[in-house]
TrEMBL record:
GO biological process: amino acid metabolic process
Record keywords: Aminotransferase, Pyridoxal phosphate, Transferase
Single GO MF annotation: pyridoxal phosphate binding
Cited Gene3D superfamilies: Aspartate Aminotransferase, domain 1, Type I PLP-dependent aspartate aminotransferase-like (Major domain)
Chain ranges of the Aminotransferase class I/classII large domain: 34-383
Listed name of the protein: Aminotransferase
Class of this enzyme: transferase
Pfam families: Aminotran_1_2
UniProt similarity note: Belongs to the class-I pyridoxal-phosphate-dependent aminotransferase family.
């Protein structure tokens, strides 16, 4: 009976496999003495003033349902945060939804806009979560491999892909600073892409979750150039080290936000009130909490980039987020999953295989440097030893 019921489940589930990232992280976690540079989670604690706001919320018995779209105070704080930080203007009453992290925001957006047969353009390598959500909606991911262009989507490739797929294209997804490459886009690059997109009646999904973690120039959202087409996704997870609080948000023109609110409301009702009260403190009085974290990440970025380059890995220097995407040297195992397993068992360092991030990612590994400097130093020492041993074995074989 159970088997027959399984066969009656949503058929698109057969297209989806459990997350490679989480699966490999769990596998590596079982190795004694492993240093994990796998999951993209800040190693900082939530700021004290934000935690205190959460405690106050509990003490004040803020344990009842919040409004489905979020408390008015939090939505107002998010509106002010976006205006001051990125020059984006969203009405707190009608254009902002508070979600259970950026993950729920992605699900809500894709579920709301996609019909069977629609296509979603994705520059790859890319955070893989967008892919199963697209498939569940009976839509089709269309990958644009950016590896030949320094992991930056060119206007030419975008225009070519749009022309190839025509009216079936419903949306394009931008996630920058990018997970997994750490690449971000300069203003002139964004403007050039926006000039292509404004000629097409499609949604532009802007996953800006790493917007506070840029090294050098301030983050520029695609929504600045395409306010009528853009749906912005962001949250408190990376900017305020609040991953476990599960606070994200969606911003869109009112007529679009109203429709998104339907899926959001019937999916989770509302985000936890206590978490919203903590996030209110974060966005209202901790607008710059991410600055000291960013400074520390930049030090780690510089160290890991220099160490990996010296070992012999070809890397694009990250300009944001906390990931390094490194090309596996030609004399080593080339399949990213096999390489990552070998590295984990022999060097006791866990990284994520690049093949998990779509076309252009195979042959690379992703290193998360959201770890302490002490861990990173030991990890680089172990990888250097692994590389040297690998080199000697290859020399003997020749």
């Amino acid at each position: 009976m159970t088997h027959s019921l399984v066969s009656k489940m949503k058929k698109e589930l057969s297209l989806i496999q459990p997350s490679d990232i989480l699966k490999f992280d769990q596998e590596a976690s079982a190795i004694p003495g492993i240093i994990k540079l796998t999951i993209g989670e800040p190693d900082f604690n939530t700021p004290e003033h934000v935690k205190e706001a959460g405690r106050r919320s509990i003490d004040n018995n803020r344990s009842h349902y919040a409004p489905p779209n979020g408390t008015p105070e939090l939505r107002q704080a998010i509106s002010h945060f976006l205006e001051k930080k990125y020059g984006l203007f969203y009405n707190a009453d009608h254009e902002i939804l508070v979600t259970a992290g950026a993950t729920e925001a992605i699900y809500t957006v894709l579920t709301s806009i996609l019909n069977p047969g629609d296509k979603v353009l994705m520059p790859t390598p890319i955070f893989p979560l967008y892919i199963p959500d697209t498939l569940l909606a009976k839509a089709e991911p269309v990958f644009m491999d950016t590896s030949a262009n320094g992991f930056v989507l060119s206007p030419e490739l975008l225009e070519k892909t749009l022309a190839e797929h025509g009216d079936a294209v419903k949306a394009v997804i931008f996630n920058f600073p990018c997970n997994p490459t750490g690449v971000t886009y300069r203003r002139e690059q964004i403007e050039a892409l926006a000039n292509v997109l404004k000629k097409h009646d499609i949604f532009v999904i802007c996953d800006d979750i790493y917007s506070e973690l840029t090294y050098g120039e301030r983050h520029v959202s695609m929504a600045e150039y395409l306010p009528d087409q853009a749906i912005v996704i962001n949250g408190a997870s990376k900017s305020h080290a609040m991953t476990g609080w599960r606070i994200g948000f969606i911003c869109a023109p009112a007529v679009i936000a109203t429709e998104l609110g339907k899926i959001h409301q019937f999916t989770i009702t509302s985000t936890a009130t206590v978490a919203q009260d903590a996030a209110l403190e974060a966005f209202e009085n901790g607008m710059d909490d991410g600055i000291h974290m960013r400074a520390e990440y930049q030090k780690r970025r510089d160290f890991v980039y220099e160490a990996m380059s010296k070992i012999g890995f070809d890397c694009v220097k990250p300009q944001g987020a906390f990931y390094l995407f490194a090309k596996i040297p030609a004399h080593m195992i080339q399949k990213s999953m096999a390489f990552s397993r070998d590295l984990a068992h022999k060097a006791k360092v866990a990284v994520i295989p690049g093949g998990s991030f779509g076309p252009g990612g195979e042959g690379y590994i992703r290193i998360s440097y959201a770890a302490s400097m002490e861990q990173l130093q030991e990890a680089m020492r172990r990888i250097a030893t692994y590389a040297e041993t690998n080199k000697k074995q290859r020399s003997v074989q020749q």
